[in-house]
Amino acid sequence: REIIFISQGKVEIEAQTDNGVEVVAVLKQGDIIGAKSVIEGSEFDYSAIAAKTVRVLKLPKSYFDDNMGKF
Fold it and tell me: Which residues, at least 6 apart from 10, have a Cβ–Cβ distance to it below 8 Å?
């Protein structure tokens, strides 16, 4: 697990619905993916698909766990 920061581009978040796979959100520069999963230890129930060229920064769960108490 990791927290992903979108530093450039656009990402579509897709989920399985009763109507099939649908885009449920569009994320852009400054948005974050996976924070809830890392904090709560839950699974990420969505797919993240690059809609344009994307640059991201990834923060592993281990780094988050090791440093959370320092903030």
Answer: 26, 27, 28, 50, 51, 52, 54
Q: What share of the chain is helix, strand, coil (3-state, %, to 5)?
A: 25, 50, 25
The CA–CA distances, whole Å, from 27 to 19, 22, 23, 65 equal 22, 14, 11, 25
Give the chain's radius of gyration (CA, Å): 13
- CA 33, CA 54: separation in Å to the nearest integer? 13
pTM above 0.85, yes or no: no
More confident residue, 65 or 46: 46
Q: Hey, is 9 helix, strand or coil?
A: coil
Q: How confident is the model at residue 70 (pLDDT cuts 50, 70, 90)?
A: low
